[in-house]
Automatic annotation (TrEMBL):
Residue ranges of the TM segments: none
Keyword annotations of the record: ATP-binding, DNA damage, DNA repair, DNA-binding, Exonuclease, Helicase, Hydrolase, Nuclease, Nucleotide-binding, Signal
Record's keyword annotation contains Disulfide bond: no
Source organism phylogeny: Eukaryota, Fungi, Dikarya, Ascomycota, Pezizomycotina
Protein name, per record: P-loop containing nucleoside triphosphate hydrolase protein
Region listing for Disordered, in residue ranges: 26-57, 456-475, 834-856
InterPro entries referenced in this protein's UniProt entry, alphabetically: DNA_helicase_UvrD-like_C, DNA_helicase_UvrD/REP, Helicase_ATP-bd, P-loop_NTPase, PDDEXK-like_dom_sf
Ranges of compositional bias, category Polar residues: 33-46, 835-845
Gene Ontology CC: nucleus
Residues covered by the Helicase ATP-binding domain: 52-240
Species in which this protein is naturally found: Ascodesmis nigricans
Amino acid sequence: MRAHSLATLHAFRVVLASTVKGQTPNLDVDATGSVSTNSPNTSHRAASNHGPLPPPSAQQAEALRVFRSNHCNLLVNACAGSGKTTLILQIAQQNPDTIFLVLTYNKDLASATRVRAKGAGLSNVHVYTMHSYGFHFYSTECQTDQGLKRVFQKLQRPKDATRLPNPGVIVVDEAQDLTPTFKMFLEHVMKDTFSGKSQPPPRLVFLGDPRQEIYEYKDADHRFLTNAPKEEVFGHINSYPWENITLDASNRLTPQMTDFIRNVMLRPHEKGHIFSARPPRLNGKRHLKPLYIIGDPYKEPYEQIQRLRKSGYSPEEILVLAPSIRQTSATPLKALVNQLAAERVPVYIPDFEESGFNDEAARGKISCCTFHQSKGIERRAVIVLDFDGSYPRYQNIEAYTGIPNPIYVAVTRASEELILIQNPKNGPLPTLNTSKLLEYSRFQIKKNSFSNAFADVSDNNGSSTTSTTSPNSDPVEMYPISHLLRVCSSSTEFLERAVSHLHLEPVVPPGICEHNTPQTIKDTHNLRLPISPITGTAAPSLQQYFSGRGLSLLNTVIHAGEPGSFYDLCLSATAGKGIMDTGTLIPAKQHKKLKHLSAKHKRGESLSVSDILFVATIHDTCMNGYNHKLHTIPDTGYNWLTRSHVKDIISTIGEHVPRKGKVKYERLIIGNFASIKTDLYGEKPGIVIQGIPDIVIPDERRIVEVKYGKLRPEHLIQAAMYAAILTENQRGLGGNWSSYVLSVTDGQYVKISPKTERSYRKILQQIVNRAIIQRKLEKEIKSKAVLKDLSDEEFLAQNRKKFSGKIGETVVPDWLGMVPTRAKTEMRLERWKSQGMSLDSTPQESVIRATGEGSF
């Protein structure tokens, strides 16, 4: 350990006694893109003022002056909480006769901007996401990236050019999140906007923050923002000069927070400094410095929440952030959520790591989400977990020279209290200026945490580069295919390459569902609780049970926690040490009910739809490790499906399942692929993957994977990999298995077949290349795997070439994203009639009649 680190540790020892003593986060737009009256609540997002606009700050006033006087394009570099959305609306307010077309990265930001525009009385602001703009004016397929690609690759014209907005200004918000696909689509839109019109082209306003570029794995690159004026990027769109504006004064963060960020987190050479626009005192008292705690990660978050609540913070004012919410092992976040739920503290956590943050579901609750999901959110108090050396290893970052952007996003969410928790076993974040911690934070080392607190720290004084290398370990023997795909599915180009090996056949087109199931219910706190994932889990089980084939899910959950159980096999593949004890997840009251249902089922007594929904909730709990829904769904609350809902589910699934013969539901399948290379040089061949297909029909060598919602390309690949496992396991006993994907929501049914005998293995090798060995490729052979790896010169060259080397041809068929025009039930009846069946004679209807009123 170097002298600096020894001096730092000596300083920590000086304060040790005083610090230890006495202490224990869909298209969301109306038909015109204008303000929507049914926008979701955004009261806790960064843009929370729904009334008249505030007077401009000095920096905003300068931006307004420049835009008014210079007749120019604007490039606005805006730090977190600096009021860039406010600036957009202020410019629109200053130019009431000019139409402003605002294009944003995600629907949450779009919704918040619409609400604020409406509150400010602005009728000249039209707000869309990239996808919703494409959906309304080009193609319904544009709800996906594949649809956006098809627009500019096929030079598609607008559906009705007369309906296009006629803006005088085009605003691109969060421009640091642009990808090559978004860039090319934007360019196409901009040209269509003024092509052939007599008036001059619109001016451009680009806003963003390079420090908040967090989607690099999707090929996002902040240089689309910082290099926007370059001729190769957006400089060719019009001939107006570009002016640069900096908003580096945050209205959200306190001076103490920005001091910590600048002096402890950011390196002296790093751009994007941040200051506070707030006074140093509030009601005569100085704001608190960030609280930096080295202590038990399972104990400290709970204790800090207790302290905050005793200090007067309501649950809705507290946000807890972690790198991931869906690890299969036991984690401090899971322990925290479950403890809070057991104590009847309202808590919200998104159902999926890939989904957005649900403002309605978070209302009135302590919110927990990932660093990425927190973007755009603001709370009075924020607790950041894993603020330590584990984060680079979790992200598989071999070496870096600054604080990762997702962590920067996480620490800029708080307006009053920022609490950072370091696990003493991990050491601090590399590049953190530990010598400044005592000066710029309330530093605490909890008892028994000091010995490892600064292990592996060397010279972290902000003046040199520190490398972190992932520890060498034996390769994981078994991977769930869903986890591998989670890493890959963010890349449109990967999905296209994988789908190119498959033959897709549209068996049944999507239809309009006349009986949409509820998305949320009221919980025991009288707050909204999302339940769509539970419905999705229950759907195949409802069809299985009411067609007389038993209830596999009940047989599975009753053995949760037992050695060698279904969940042990599923979770041990990636969990390693610290695997969840699924048996302890189920509260005693619910476990007693589960045993009662199992006994009832064994006696041959009927179960109800509510019983099956309860079992599905237990299953989801055991799979994800969070039991808050079991604590907050009322005993009589498993009643959100009506007879019409169940009839629709049974009919939709049952149409594609044989009435007779062997059918397996929710079975774990495992495949050993010896020919797959899992390292760079092929020295460690072979991989074992597992999956849980919803329905397996052995006699037909067919798999049916059931999805609740619109079908997406990753669903096709997931089903294909399930077929690959069974094909590999039964090689020599028959041909390839085929797979089908079914949307219970709209009824779309797609057949998936391999184009060649080797297609499945080619897809699996592509998945392994991206999910397991991509970082090794980047490090050892300097592979330019993502856009950020390109030099500035290479980046501009790609722009000139229109990303021909980065954006491949669109392979996913356009019918996958088609919007239904006819009712699902109507089309189903036509298919039955074509088979010579009346409604009363169909197998599905006899099953439906069996679900008498007592089943509900």
